[in-house]
Amino acid sequence: MRKLMGRSRDSLIKVKEGGGKKPPQWLQRQSLTTSHKQADTWPVSQRRVYRTTTHVPQELGQIMDSETFEKSRLYQLDKSAFSFWSGLYSEVEGTMILLCGGIPFLWNLSGQISGRAGFGPEYEIFQSLVFLLLATLFSAVTGLPWSLYNTFVIEEKHGFNQQTLGFFFKDAIKKFIVTQCILLPVTSLLLYIIKIGGDYFFIYAWLFTLVVSLVLVTIYADYIAPLFDKFIPLPEGELKQQIETMAKSIDFPLTKVYVVEGSKRSSHSNAYFYGFFKNKRIVLFDTLLEDYSALNKEPAGEDGENEETKSKTKNKKQGCKNEEVLAVLGHELGHWKLGHTVKNIIISQMNSFLCFFLFAVLIGQKELFAAFGFYDTQPTLIGLMIIFQFIFSPYNEVLSFCLTVLSRRFEFQADAFAKELGKAKDLYSALIKLNKDNLGFPVSDWIFSMWHYSHPPLLERLQALKDAKQE
């Protein structure tokens, strides 16, 4: 069911993996660190690179020591193996659900539960919500062992995990509850709009999802993210003044800068900005900031929060210096200044409108429902699952590749913008530091990179910055 519900395994940053609690995919914002899509199938060619590239290539000699290179190689080997087995399980699970009639079974079970609650077959929306609740619960339970292994074996082994088991389960339960509080009301309203919308319901459904997306973008960092992490305003000082000065120089309407305690769950680095119109805000993870990272400080003697999070002070300095943080922000503000954020939102909404239009065309085809075991009924929610998850699957793959190509182009343009701000040298060193902190492996198979990496490989970005750095 995890596969059927479209569970995402996207990682956070390409340099290399991100940390902390990542904002959901429905948030239309630019990440301050780079990311790549993780393959759901075994990346054979890239795994071969991990296995065979055991020494630092000559072109990397000045930016990466052999110890860090070996650590990153082993980390990526473990992750690729995990990706293979978890992806294989997901495929087998999804196939067995289809072959064994898992979807109609769960729908009938939802109907029985609804009936016992006094809601007959005519209350399709209520039954759909029960179905959705059971499906997401099934996905959470079957995905739990994989999440535990990834966090407490792989991430723990390579020094990234900062969570205790109690913190992990508390976080997982909270995440499930918050997800249901958003998902169920939104789904019920969407199904209602589809049912009463008439011939042009797809327009109303698209407008509804657009409004929901904008609302969630607006409230996420202020009301949802703080449920999981502690957000504090960036203290007054040199860094804050420099950020405000840079934002003002390019007319970026910055209103607040936050630091989030990402180190409570992971030592990976991440950051992002969000907001509309004249209300832009920047969020920096403490693991990104050398002067603020808890991982660079001695553990407190007695602290209540130490019961929930582990104190694992590394024998290294993690994060970036102020000048490097400003360079990274210069890159990300370039995305805003060059209109990349708006372009991404427009592309997303055009795609959403097209999908709803095609859904309106296909929803009346009873053969589609019959192919999935629904011979007598055609529930709207099931139609959404069938069409969006299965019928659109080839289209989604092509679209994903096109967006990957576009994203890489945007990244080079944002790097060039940082150059124009005079940040080339600091961005160069920041990319190297973030790659090292997150154990990013800088050698990539070109086919794997082209298909999966939404950001250019490290060497390509450094080469593009090199000339400006030397000037």
What's the arrangement of secondary structure elements?
Elements: H1 44-52, H2 66-99, H3 102-116, H4 124-157, H5 165-196, H6 201-224, E1 231-233, H7 238-249, E2 254-260, E3 271-274, E4 280-285, H8 322-337, H9 340-362, H10 366-371, H11 380-391, H12 393-420, H13 424-437, H14 446-452, H15 458-470
Parallel strand pairs: 2-4
Antiparallel strand pairs: 1-2, 3-4
Summarize the structure in words.
The protein has a four-stranded mixed β-sheet, with helices on both faces. The relative contact order is 0.14. It has 471 residues and is mainly alpha-helical. A hairpin with a 5-residue loop joins strand 3 (271-274) and strand 4. It is built from 15 helices and four strands.
Helix content estimate = 55-70%
Task: Please describe the biggest sheet, giving its number of strands, its sense, and whether it closes into a barrel.
Answer: 4 strands, mixed
Q: Using DSSP, what is the number of strands?
A: 4
Contiguous runs where pLDDT drops below 50 for at least 5 residues: 2-42, 300-305, 307-315
Look at the structure and give the mean pLDDT. Answer: 83
Q: How do the strands line up in the largest sheet?
A: 1-2-4-3
- Radius of gyration, in Å, reads 23 Å
